[in-house]
Design a protein that fits this description.
181 residues
Length: 181
């Protein structure tokens, strides 16, 4: 096996990415503190061609050198919107027909492997590194997704959790879209 060169990967350039079809998925960051986490989520969102990221509350937004450090330019390709309040973003998305999923350990949450997506448009809310998704946001969500964990820790880093959830949703949605066939 020979490692591929960057020029052999056949990736979209920035202009092609901007006009390319996206999966009907929006990521909502609810008061995420770490700029490295924000940048990492931008990079994952670019990899799976999500529609948009909502940066809510204290979540920093581009341009910022600390976001760029982990986003590596994805902050320039992925569409994003800064919203003062996460509930405002949730209301906008619901009005546009999105099903809202908070990624959180909650009573009645759905284990990620058991998630079966039927609706066309989805939004996932990822929360603060210490406090998680705010209860008022969970109250307005259509459901909670929980990532199974089998070790001693009770949570994952928000950028890691986003990658796991985005990948699972991408697998389910992209199989229904001709753009990824």
């Amino acid at each position: 096996m020979l490692k591929l060169k960057i020029t052999e990967l056949n990736r979209l350039n920035d202009q092609e990415f901007k006009i390319a079809d996206k999966i009907p998925l929006v990521v909502v960051l609810d008061n995420v503190r770490s700029l490295h986490n924000v940048g990492s989520i931008f990079r994952t969102s670019d990899a799976f061609r999500i529609e948009r990221i909502y940066l809510c509350g204290i979540t920093a937004h581009p341009p910022h050198p600390e976001i760029h450090k982990t986003a590596l330019g994805a902050e320039n390709t992925v569409n994003w919107t800064s919203v003062e309040n996460t509930l405002e973003a949730i209301q906008q998305l619901k009005a546009s027909g999105y099903k809202i999923w908070s990624v959180e350990q909650a009573k009645g949450s759905i284990s990620l492997p058991e998630l079966e997506l039927k609706e066309e448009k989805h939004a996932v809310v990822l929360g603060n590194e210490v406090h998680g998704v705010g209860q008022e946001v969970i109250d307005q969500s259509d459901g909670c997704i929980e990532i199974p964990q089998f070790g001693t820790k009770h949570s994952l880093n928000v950028s890691v959790a986003s990658g796991i959830v985005i990948w699972e949703i991408f697998k389910q949605i992209s199989g229904k879209l001709s753009i990824f066939q």
